[in-house]
Amino acid sequence: MSKSPMKEKKFVTDWIDANSTPVNNISDAVWSYAEIGMQEYNTSKALIAYFKDNGFSVEEGVAEMPTAFVATYGSGKPVIGFNVEMDALPGLSQERSLDVKKPVIEGAPGHGCGHNLLGPAAALAAVSLSRVLAEFKPGGTIKAFGTPAEELCIGKPYMARAGLFKGVDAFLDWHPFFNTNTDYTSCNAYFSIRFHFRGRTAHGNSPWQGRSALDAATLSGTMIEYLRENVTPGNPPLAANTINYSFPDVGPAFPVVVPDRSTLWVVGRIVSSDEAKYVIDRLYKIAQAGAMATETTVEIELISATHERLPNQVISQLLHENLEEIGAMQFTRDEINSAKKMQRDYGAVETGLDSSIMPLSGGFHAVTDNSEFSWFAPISTLWLTIAPAGIGWHVWQVASLAGSDIGKKAINIAAKVLSTSGIDLLLKPSIVDEARKELAQRLQGRAYTSLIPEAVKPPVLLNRDIMDHYRPLQEKLYQQS
Fold it and tell me: Is 0.85 topped by the overall pTM?
């Protein structure tokens, strides 16, 4: 075993430079597929093929999700996990590399969160690290987790419930963003639940003959408003306890017919999983009360629920050191001017693209289901600038930039930072030991328990209707991986 990883790190960064083209092609293909959560069939197939072509064994369709997979290489300890996310977002179709809004297909999905970069770069990092195992024989195992539907926090909690994250010693993660850092951050627990009310239709001139499912749903929404005063505020503004709801399905649609169906969709972001359990229990009682009061029935559909994220300063420090060694994103004058135009059109301050590396620190970030990883092993996420600040996220501008040359530069840097950090974990066991001690302190004796009952199946048909509509239009424009 080498005492210094300098030789191994040069090997892996050179390998990435020489072998990035296939992954860039996969990223372009995934960008063109633009498949939303639970429907990432082409995306999953392309990533699985890449892993198999590079000597990984792949278990497909894990945790009862057709697009989920686990790719494995090597044997023994340590076991290093990589997060391979792959879903797009509805309604964000956008031509690549443009600073004006121009959908590829009006209304179709698009990669407004940059997961066409995230998954392929994580795959490149995992495969490049496997070359280190083959070349230098340090021992260890690489596991790449193909996790669907991150945008609705679905993939990882079901994979965690299936025990797929057990035995991992550390997780290395990354995500595109509008700044560059490796903060050891936390995020709130999360839940997504749909309440389907069913009643009886009647003519609007004799509504007493019907039983309004919409009445049940709106009464339940009103009770949620009163529930808010029984839920702590959390730690606003970044870690506030929030409950949002909508009525995505009501019918029949005519006001002269009493509606016999209505769905109330509730999403919560709660600081701790313990408090999330309390809120979920109250919501169940609210829905049952709404049904009872209106003489309707209610079916409860738990879509997903995740824990709060447990940060890890040790792994974050490791990623930060390798980020500083590799260097932050650099941009051309044209790229910066294009980003400034996006900001100007949005009404934001024209700062362009941030090429600095932020100091290491803690804090909170938006909800993500990679929080499930953090209860099994230490994790840190690398954030890399691909878009300008002030224009928001999950927007067409991100979809444009994620398909541009900026995205390919991010793939290269992300893969290098993740793989060189993996080398440190392979060659310096003390880092893993220190990180796991920190995790134990944060767990405070708690053990992972899924928030999703065993009887609940993953919502594999979710979003199928959207993709069934747009996929035939998109297929004509697919790029080859």
Answer: yes
User: At CA 84, angle to CA 80 and CA 86, rounded to 5?
Assistant: 175
pLDDT, averaged per 10 consecutive residues of the chain (481 residues), comes to: 77 98 98 98 98 98 98 98 97 97 98 98 98 96 98 97 98 97 94 98 96 98 95 84 96 95 97 96 98 98 97 98 97 98 97 97 91 98 97 97 98 98 97 98 96 97 97 95 84
pLDDT digits (tens, 9 = 90+) for 440-475: 999 999 999 999 999 999 999 999 999 999 999 999
- H-type alpha helices, 327-404: 333-346, 396-402
How far, in Å, CA of 77 to CA of 138, rounded? 10
Residues shown for the chain:
481
The helix (run of H) or strand (run of E) holding residue 150 is none
- Of 138, 141, 144, the C-alpha closest to 125 is 144
Other beta carbons within 10 angstroms of residue 220's beta carbon come to 26
Closest CA to 305 of 197, 88, 156, 145: 156
Find all residues with CB under 8 Å of 439, minimum gap 6, and list them: 310, 312, 374, 377, 378
| Distant-in-sequence, close-in-space partners of 408: CB < 8 Å, separation ≥ 6 | 20, 24, 27
pLDDT of residue 1: 39
Helix axes 429-443, 313-326, angle to 10 degrees: 140
Domains of the chain plus CATH, in order, are: 6-187+309-453+457-475 (3.40.630.10), 189-306 (3.30.70.360)
